[in-house]
Amino acid sequence: MNIIKRIALLIFLLSTGTLLAQVSFEAKVSKKVLGVNERLRVDFQMNKDGDNFTPPSFANFKVVMGPNQSISNSWINGKRTFSKTYSYILAPTKRGKFKISQATVDIDGKTYKTLPVSIEVTAAVDKPKDPNDPEYVAEQNMHLIAEVSKANPYLNEAITVVYKLYFSNNINVSNVNELDSPQYNDFWSHNIEIRRKMEQGTFKGEPYRYIIWKKVVLYPQKSGKLTLDPLTLNITLDVPTNRRDFFGGRIYTQIEKPLKAGNRTIQVKALPEEGKPANFTGAVGDFDFTVSTSKDQLNAGESLQAKIIVSGKGNLKLFKLPKLNVPSSLEVYEPEHDEKVRTNLGGMQGKIADSYTLVPQYQGKYPIPPISFSYFDPEAEAYRTLTSSELIVDVLEGPTNSGAVTNRDNLPTTNNKKVVVSAGDQFRFIKLRPNLVSMKQTAFFKSRLFWALLLTPFLIIPIAMFIGRRRKQRATDITGNKLRKANRLAKKYLSESKKNLGKKETFYEAMERALHNYLKAKIHIETSEFSKEKIVELLKTRGADDRSVKGFISLIESCEFARYTPASVETMKQDYDKAVTVISEIDKQIR
C-alpha cells in the first residue's frame, strides 16, 4: 500500500511540475551593450494572461515610451498559443554597467518574477539607433562570421575558413544570395561541397540559429601578411515591427540587407633556411615515402614497373616527386603520374605516385640506387628526409652485354654501349611443295544468289525512300525536336524527385541533385564550380534568357531553404512542375 501511495504522490508531483513549467514570464532586451545616446527596448512577455503587472524601477534609465501592451491569441492545429507583452523604450542616463531588475505578475494566483538583465552603457556612438527600425533590428540579430583555423601558418600549410551565418529567433530568413565571392589571391584554394542545414548554437553567449554557408581549404603560396577577401551575402528577411494585426499578432516587414564577413589577415611564416635539404621541393606536411618494383626477376625484353610513392597528409598536389635513376642498360619511359587525393577540412590526404616502365636489354643484375625525399613537418617545425633502400633487378635470360663493366659486387655499371645480337631466325626458307588444292568452278549466272543480289536493291529503294522522307520531316521540325529532347531530359533528371513527392527532405534533395546533374550534362560544369555566379555566367553565355536563368537560380535557392521550412504536397508539386518547365525552356535556348 505504501508503494502505491508513493507512486501516486510521484505522479502528482510530476504533473504539477509540468503544469508549472508551462507558465513562462521573461524579460527580453533589444541589445545588451549600447551607447549612452542610444535607445533600449525591453519586452516583458508571458504565455498566460496575468494581473497586477509591476515593472521594475528602471534605475539609471529614463522611460521614453511605454508601457505598450500587446496580446497575441491564435489557434494552430487545434492548439491555442497565447502571448501578452509589456514593452518599454528606455534611454540611459549615464555610462556604466547596470541591471534591469525584476518585474512581477500574478498568474493563476501565483506570483512570477523575471530574471535581472545586465546592460552595459558605453560612450556615445556616431549614429544613435532606433530599436524599432527594421534595419537596426536586422543588424543586431544577424551576423556573418569567417572562422579561420590558424592565423599564422607556415608557407604551404593548410588552413580552413568556415563561413557561418547567424540569426536570432526574432527574425526569419526567406532567401540568401551570394553577391561577392572571395578570390583568395596568393592561396591555393579548394571549396568543400556542403549540404546546408539549420543548426542551433550560440553567438556571444546568446542562443542563435546558424547555417554553415561555405567551407574552404587554403594553402598559402607566399610568406608575409596575406589578406582574405570578404564574403558578401544579400539576405531577404522578415523583421518584426512594433505593430499588431487585428488578431493581436505581430506584423512583420520584409527587407533586403547585404551582409559581409570582414577582411581577415593571415600572417604566413616562411620555411626556415637552416637545415633545409638540397633536394627539398616544397613538400609540407606529414608523409611516408616508398620506392618499389613490380618484379625483381625477369628476362631481357620484358618490362617491369618502378613506382615512387608519397602518401600522407599535406600539400600533395603542390610539389614534385624525386626522379628515378637507373643504369643505362635499362630503357626508361616517361613516368605516368597518378593522384588519389581527397580534400577535407584537415587539408589534402591520400597519395601521389610516378610509375616508370623499365625494359632491360641484357641479362645481369642491375641496381636501382636509393632515392631520398625531404619535407617540412610544421608540427615539429623541422625538416625530415626519408631514403629508400637499394633495389636489384635480376635479368635471368637474354643477350650478354659484352661492353658492360662490372663492379666489385659483380653488378654491371652504367655503360652506353649496346651490342646488336642476331636472333638466329632472321632467314626463313620458302616451302617448295605447297600442296595447293584446286577450287571447283560453279555456275553463278542465274543461280539463286544471282537473282537475290539482283532483286534486293529494287526492294530496298522504296523502303529507304519512305524512311528518308520521315527522317527529313522530323529533322525540319526544329521546335518539336527541341521540345521533345527538353522534356525527355527534364523527366530523366527529375524522375527521382517525382517519386518522393510528399517526403519533403528527400524530395528537395533529389531535386537539387537533378538540377546539378542537368548542369553537368549540358554545360559541363564541375561540382567544385557550383556557385550561382558561375551558373548564371555559363547559362547566359550559352544563350539562355534572363527569365529562365532567374527561374533556375530561384529553384536552387528553394531547394537550399525549403528543406528546413514547412512545405505541403501541393507546394512540392508546384516546385516540380516549375523545374520541368525551366529545364525545358533552358534546353531549347542554349547552344
Strand content: 35-45%
The class by helix and strand makeup works out as alpha+beta
Poorly predicted runs: 15-21, 414-427
Largest sheet: 5 strands, antiparallel
**DSSP summary: helix tally:** 8
C-alpha-based Rg, rounded: 39 Å
Number of strands: 30
Rounded average pLDDT:
81
- The amount of helix comes to 10-25%
Distance between the termini: 85 Å
Outline type = flat
Number of domains: 4
Describe the protein's topology.
Layout: H1 2-21, E1 25-29, E2 33-35, E3 40-46, E4 51-54, E5 61-76, E6 79-92, E7 96-100, E8 104-107, E9 110-113, E10 117-122, H2 134-141, E11 142-148, E12 159-167, E13 172-180, E14 187-192, E15 198-203, E16 206-220, E17 224-228, E18 232-244, E19 250-260, E20 264-268, E21 285-293, E22 297-298, E23 304-314, E24 330-332, E25 336-344, E26 347-360, E27 364-368, E28 372-377, E29 382-387, E30 391-395, H3 448-476, H4 478-499, H5 504-523, H6 532-541, H7 546-562, H8 569-589
Parallel strand pairs: 2-10, 22-30
Antiparallel strand pairs: 1-3, 3-6, 4-8, 5-6, 7-10, 8-9, 11-12, 12-16, 13-18, 14-16, 15-16, 17-20, 18-19, 21-23, 23-26, 24-26, 25-26, 27-30, 28-29
Organism: Sungkyunkwania multivorans
Transmembrane segments: 449-468
Signal peptide: 1-21
